[in-house]
## 1
Amino acid sequence: MIRSAIAAFGDTRMQVVLTTGYQELPSELAPLPSNFHHAAYLPGRAMAERCDLMVHNGGHGSVMMGLLAGTPAVIIPTITERESNARRVMALGAGEIVLPTNGADGEKRIDVGDFSAKVQQVLTEPSYRQSARRVADSMSKLGGIREAADRIERCASLNRSS
């Protein structure tokens, strides 16, 4: 994913924030292009709220963070569960998916041209941001973690009373 991002967006006008989840950046990728900014970790919600687009692997946390922030996504899923999440984001109109293929060496690869085209599509077509914001608005009306905890407590107390 990192190699494809560098190939597609290195030394362009686009500013890319790359997080690696406390994993080292592979030495063969250094130095990064001047428009790439690497950090092991950044607060997800704060970044999602400030981004025009999130590119991620479709994990539950990344999907939910992007939807809560109303930020559209291009998702590159690496396992079946993440592909399912990506397809749900697509169905909501809040993103696109780029499916990796297995290279001859067994390493997952993505088509750089397809990846670049999907990123440009999501960035330039307003319906993706509109859909992501619609989902965020809908989610905000549900009450979040506090409401979920309250409902669980009410349900648990009803079961104890029975």
## 2
Amino acid sequence: MDHHGFDAVAEGTGAGLPIIDDEARKAYRRRLAEVDDDIDEATRMHDLGRVELAQRDRDYLLAELSRAVGLGGRQRSIGGTAERARTSVTRSLRYALAKLAQHHPAVATHLKHSVHTGTYCSYAPDPLTPIQWHL
């Protein structure tokens, strides 16, 4: 560690701060277990309203946990070099697709549904709807 308390290896890789720390992740998982128990109990009691509310809680918790976890279960961070690059690419792509939509709405719609950004970017068109490009 350097005199500021930072790990030089993490600093050299452009690592940022974790989105949620271990304690928060554990709290989310405990709450998720409680919600799962609540869903089971409400299902046994045929309380559909309670099941629906608990399912909403469960969906929220899962979304928060998945937002904080990257590829291969690694913890995502805020402010690191890779995160800044990822957000820059995503923002640039959205801007380009918005401009493309002004001239070729069908192509822009296709690309919005087929191009996926994140740690890795990919073009994955729907295999059930083949497309032929004519340039």
